[in-house]
DNA sequence: GTATTCAGAACTGTATTCACTTTTCCCTCC
DNA sequence: GGAGGGAAAAGTGAATACAGTTCTGAATAC
């Protein structure tokens, strides 16, 4: 292994399957809507932009379609799945159900030590600075909290699904989170954990339901307020999203 | 297995993307374990057996990996995901949670007409013959019932997930179902629907939980009894599964 | 002015070829 | 006889070439 491998991959292509790298890159482009919904993905153009041939790109596109980020149409290639309001609500509803289900399992299975570790994490997160520019970092921390909590369910498939769901709603949550009403979020995380440590699954589940549902309502509001500005000129955001993700 | 077991290739290739066709074919081979877990998938051999080049085959393998049927390893291609007991329980647990969640939504959203239509379907299913050879057909009907019920939740993503889960546990359910204790199944389906028509979500949810959990216990039992014979010589079954799916 | 047709361009889907990695297996050495 | 080494074979990953479809736009008919 040479010293170059440690350097942040800028020009030289990092090792590993390029299809995997491309998969991540295109996913970031899709979830941040740098690739606009409804717009067809031009394979030769995108391949050239990413510095690979069409073959690994197509593998990535295939996977992304299987994961629900893209839509494949015969002889017409791929398009980014539009972020229509109905789908956002559907995904959020699913997420709520999934997280509450995982939480109930976690209440039975998590050890006290695991809960304590997660609590420490939640408290560290609370002390993060809250500059508006950090919204992305905060979102990442929030996702991590929910994922780690789901992991305590010891159900790998649920964790996998939650991760996928989070990726798919990340953009809209990011928009939402810039409105900076985070204190309650962090507070509720800690409270959920307290219920868990008391092994009160019911109380924890109810709080979690409220926790997610409240966001769902805010987002519904936002959607009603208008989608128009959402897709406009978020190249910078997209850049940042890619870095964090 | 030899290459010749696969579907006849030369015989008139149906229209449409061959990658899609191959995707279905290989999926059938994976879920029925004609491709044995742990065994590497030889791309050139399988491609030749299916009468296509490696390109569309690899697209199919990619998708199947994203869907959880296969595992991809760098520079070592794909293997069928093993059917270890822990994973079966995980998938079943997930399925139970998902179905109960969907059911609760269905209780709020389904119209009386929709429930009546599903009830008619359940009654037709009950009158199907029960020769042991029909176990596959009965399984298909059972899956259909549960999927249609989930559709009444009006949450497309949940339906999508359920479908995927069903495919992944289909094999083990088929083994289980040949023990022919179906009458209770059908009876419970109808009873769940009666609770729904009465808009008693709680009763319906509890019954559904029992309905699935009981199977989970039977399957756990079966797993304890030993997995050894499961993988042995089910070429015929595989054929039939492919036809039904 | 509008609709239609049809050839050429653009693009997707598949096959083939090339590059690189892993596995196999024979040979050597101890 | 067993361990290690190393070429050859086999296999995967990526690039290129080819085939078939869809899109575009100008010419033509009405």
From TrEMBL, chains A, B:
Pfam families: FCD, GntR. Residues 16-83 form the HTH gntR-type domain. Transmembrane segments: none annotated. GO terms for molecular function: DNA binding; DNA-binding transcription factor activity. Residues 1-15 have a biased composition (Low complexity). It comes from the Bacteria. Residues 1-22 are annotated as: Disordered. Gene3D superfamilies: GntR ligand-binding domain-like, Winged helix-like DNA-binding domain superfamily/Winged helix DNA-binding domain. Keywords: DNA-binding, Transcription, Transcription regulation. PANTHER family: GNTR FAMILY REGULATORY PROTEIN, TRANSCRIPTIONAL REGULATOR, GNTR FAMILY. This is GntR family transcriptional regulator. It comes from Teichococcus deserti. The lineage of its organism: Bacteria, Pseudomonadati, Pseudomonadota, Alphaproteobacteria, Acetobacterales.
């Amino acid at each position: 292994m040479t010293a170059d491998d440690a350097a942040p991959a800028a020009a030289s292509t990092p090792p590993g399957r390029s299809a995997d790298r491309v998969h991540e890159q295109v996913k970031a482009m899709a979830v941040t809507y740098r690739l606009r919904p409804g717009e067809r993905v031009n394979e030769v153009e995108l391949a050239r932009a990413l510095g690979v041939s069409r073959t690994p790109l197509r593998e990535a596109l295939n996977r992304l379609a299987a994961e629900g980020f893209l839509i494949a149409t015969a002889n017409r290639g791929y398009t980014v799945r539009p972020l229509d309001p109905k789908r956002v609500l559907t995904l959020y509803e699913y997420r709520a159900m999934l997280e509450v289900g995982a939480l109930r399992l976690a209440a039975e299975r998590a050890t006290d030590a695991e809960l304590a570790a997660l609590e420490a994490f939640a408290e560290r997160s609370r002390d993060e600075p809250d500059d508006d520019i950090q919204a992305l970092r905060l979102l990442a921390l929030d996702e991590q909290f929910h994922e780690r909590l789901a992991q305590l369910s010891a159900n790998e498939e649920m964790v996998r699904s939650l991760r996928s769901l989070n990726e798919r709603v990340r953009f809209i949550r990011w928009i939402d989170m810039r409105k900076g009403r985070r204190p309650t979020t962090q507070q509720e995380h800690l409270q959920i954990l307290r219920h868990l440590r008391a092994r009160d699954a019911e109380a924890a589940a109810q709080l979690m339901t409220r926790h997610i549902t409240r966001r769902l309502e805010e987002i519904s509001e936002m959607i009603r307020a208008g989608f128009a500005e959402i897709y406009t000129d978020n190249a910078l955001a997209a850049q940042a999203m890619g870095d964090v993700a």
